[in-house]
Amino acid sequence: MSWERFTLLFPLWTLLGALLALLHPPLFIWFKGPLIALGFGVIMLDMGVGLTPADFVRVGRRPRAMLLGVLVQFLVMPALAAVIAAALHLPAPLAVGLILVGRGDVALLVVMTTISTLAAVVLTPRLTQVLASQYVPVDGWVLFLAVLQVVLLPVTVGVVLKRSLHGMAWDGGLSL
Fold first, then answer.
1. Which segments of the chain does DSSP mark as H helices, in order?
2. CA 44 to chain CA centroid, nearest Å
3. Domains of the chain, residue spans
4. From first to last of its 176 residues, what are the pLDDT tens digits of the chain?
5. What CATH architecture is 38-164?
6. Long-range contacts of 116-119 (CB under 8 A, 24+ apart)
7. What is the distance between the alpha carbons of residues 49 and 55, in angstroms, rounded to a whole number?
8. Could you tell me if 114 and 155 are in contact, meaning their C-beta atoms sit under 8 angstroms apart?
């Protein structure tokens, strides 16, 4: 199986991993602490490797669509998640998890997600502090630094790697 096909089946691997974790949680208890941040950083690096500056320019020509997507991702979805968490009286860990994942043309999607990811450096700590602090104490500054380290740095490194290794067959998906 080629790397490209392997990475195109990412939703299947995710579903299988979730099913395995549900059926046999001990398989995944080792993946905690700093490994979670490292794993997320690798995903962000992969996102950066899949982008070029031209992608940002192309999507920049459609600012209304991009702005609408970002607003929905950072206002409507987390607010709806917070309302659902409150309405269902979810326990704190589930409520915070729902709020965090409630922010949920391919180039438009990828670039909008990247812009949302970059905006997440500032918005995620602030929104988490505003919406989830009723459940758990939230230090917005510490969360900001963590998001900066795990999101912005890997995406930037990925874009720079793609640009500097342009001659190699590396088009995202960690498919060297």
1. 3-8, 10-23, 34-49, 53-60, 63-71, 77-87, 92-101, 106-132, 140-147, 153-164
2. 7
3. 1-31, 38-164
4. 555 666 667 678 778 888 998 899 888 888 887 887 787 777 777 767 777 778 778 878 888 887 887 787 778 878 888 999 899 998 888 888 777 766 654 455 566 666 777 777 778 788 888 888 888 888 878 878 887 787 778 877 887 887 777 655 444 444 33
5. Up-down Bundle (1.20)
6. 116/69, 116/70, 116/73, 116/74, 117/44, 117/47, 117/151, 117/155, 118/151, 118/152, 118/155, 119/70, 119/74
7. 12
8. yes
Structure tokens at 99: 């709020």
Rounded Cα distance between 1 and 13, Å, is 14
Q: Which two tokens stand for residue 66?
A: 């991009």
